[in-house]
Amino acid sequence: MAAWKTIRITKPCRLSIDNGNLVVEDDTMRVKLSLPDTDSIIFEGDRFTLSAKVLSALSRHKVATLFCDEYYMPTAILHPYHQSSLATETLKAQLSLPDELRDRLWQEIIRVKILNQSAVLKHFAKENAKLENYAEQIRPGDPYGAEAKSARLYWKELFDGLKREADSLDVRNQALNYAYAILRSLITRDLSAAGFLPALGLWHDNRYNAFNLSDDLMEPFRPIVDAAVYLLLPLYEEEYLSPEFKKAIISIFDSEYLIYEAGLSSLRTVSTRYIQGFKATVRSRNIERLHFPTIDFGALRECF
Amino acid sequence: MFDLPTQTKKDRKRYRWLSRYLDKQGFIRLQYSVYAKVFNSLESAKYGKKRIKEFLHVNIPKGNVRMILFTDQQYGKMEIIVGKSSEQEKVEQKNLFDF
Predict the structure, then answer these.
(1) CB-CB neighbors (< 8 A) of A24 in chain B
(2) What's the rounded mean pLDDT across residues A277-298?
(3) CB A288: neighbour CB atoms within 10 A?
(4) Does residue A9 belong to the interface with chain B, where contact is any CB pair within 8 Å?
(5) ipTM of the complex
């Protein structure tokens, strides 16, 4: 059974487990939520209490869990301990990944990312032919840094003169950071559930980053999220990330506007199937098994 | 919907088994002995139905148990004549539970 619900906790409340269900209660209400149906949960604000049992139940049901700080920006994710029945085998395949395949995978991921970026710019009439050139020029392992070059160009074109920063007060940056954090938690959950170690990346190799592999694999999804955030921005003109805006950002992940293996589906669904494809690739050493998402702009526009 | 005998101690135990099992599977109680669950696709609804059937075949030998599948629209058309829907019921159909 596929999970399809998102839970967002902002008010002070108590969380507990009753007969396998998650119970959310305060002085006035008590609601039970079924964990197998829950896809992700976002804890915002810091005045809720929960037991260790809740955390272990969330992890057992592979719920993507995200904790936010006092500024309501995501700070921590709970990533499930390996529970795939073939976890050891997958892990061994990941650890013994040949360098050529690693470089080929990174090349393919970046190529698709740049093509998606180019498609986004084209759709918003900010076309730049250089991007497609970068996508063609890219070599295994990206030794000439086409990714960085295209990123610089792309950010400048899409959001007028935006500088990407982690702690920026610019609402565009905040919206993007919030959306990326959710994306990252989804990918990490799926990686852990499939038996991978998210700390060991293909290209990202920061020794302080526990999610190098997640950061690698989420690259092709970034332009997709960017396009959705770009369309949302004019609808929310506040100077800060309002609760309604955040709700709209969460809905990005449920709307069906991604083309994946010739069908239309939501980011949530694609993320899981994409990681399954990555698993098949790593185990069979055959890059053909990995498929990438593209955007259906018509469907995207209908979502907002 | 179910009617189960509750005369003997063993009967009542079986009754509790079923209601506990339904709770565990994420069903909510609409009224006494009437339980419902929202599925997001026909496929998962069929799978959910199969699981309940298996549990019943193993554990509930007598009584009267029925199941029916509604679409979202049909369920929405249900009229409540006396009383009102519970908070839990309102929460159940939403994609995003916001608290």
Answers:
(1) 97, 99
(2) 86
(3) 9
(4) yes
(5) 0.82
